[in-house]
Amino acid sequence: MSSKLIKLNGVAGIDEAGRGPMIGPLVVCGVLVSKSELKKMMRIRIRDSKVLSAKQRNEFAIEIKKHAEKIEYSIVSASDIDWLRSNRITLNEIEVRSFVSIAKKLQPAELYMDAADVNAQRFGDAIGNRSGLQEAGCKIVSEHKADSKFTVVSAASIMAKVKRDNRVLKLHKKYGDFGSGYPSDPKTVEFVRGLVFSGEEIPNIVRKSWKSVTKIIAEAETTQTTLDSF
To answer: Based on the domain organization, do 182 and 167 belong to the same domain?
Structure first.
């Protein structure tokens, strides 16, 4: 579709949850609201998901759904991340593709994003150009820590985090409690170590291409080699 035929409306924010974990999906969310609903949303003091408890995020999620015109998600599984990275597609590029997909679906007149690139302008230009929104006249704002600056991005941050948390809880039921999935979580690290050192097949919920995972695999191989030498 020609960018000239795109009808833009409303204000949208896009953010992600799950960029850094060694277990579980990357979730990117976009929230579209009208300007009048955005003003209402601002009154309930929505904040960046990282400063909220799980209970607070769930409460805000209910309110966000009341005000949002549209909510879109892009969920990239751990196995898809591994496959893409094995084909020399960087995590930044994976995020760009997800952001572009959501931006196309929302078609906002104004788009605010939490930049996933060290160069925030470059990230914004990539999304704007590849979605066709920039040519169509969309106002695009791409900044670092946008989730703490713009209410609509805070809303996207909350919805992305709630969606990922719910996915992780479902994975707990199937695979056992592995914690948050982040390499900073001792429970997560011990879960992966237990799998690797026991020789069990590593399930596809684990990002095998992650440095924190490959380090554990290398450690296990070194230990096994040492044992075999006796």
So the answer is: no
Contacts of 86 (CB under 8 A, 6+ apart): 209
Q: Is the pTM of this model over 0.70?
A: yes
Are 184 and 199 within one domain? yes
Tokens 């104004």 locate to 110
Tokens of 5: 């035929």
Q: Choose one of 123, 138, 171: the last residue of a domain.
A: 171
Amino acid sitting at position 197: F
- Token pair listed for 27: 């979730």
Distance CA 97, CA 94 (A): 5
Same domain assignment for residues 35 and 101? yes
What one-character-per-residue DSSP string does 40-95 give? HHHHTT---GGGS-HHHHHHHHHHHHHH-SEEEEEEE-HHHHHHHHHTT--HHHHH
Q: pLDDT digit string (tens) for 154-196?
A: 999 999 999 999 999 999 999 999 999 999 999 999 999 999 9
Q: Are residues 90 and 185 in the same domain?
A: no
Query: Within this chain, do residues 130 and 220 fall inside the same structural domain, yes or no?
Result: no
Q: Which parts of the chain fold into alpha helices (H)? A: 35-43, 54-67, 78-86, 91-106, 120-131, 133-136, 151-175, 186-198, 211-228
Query: Domain containing 51: what range?
Result: 3-171
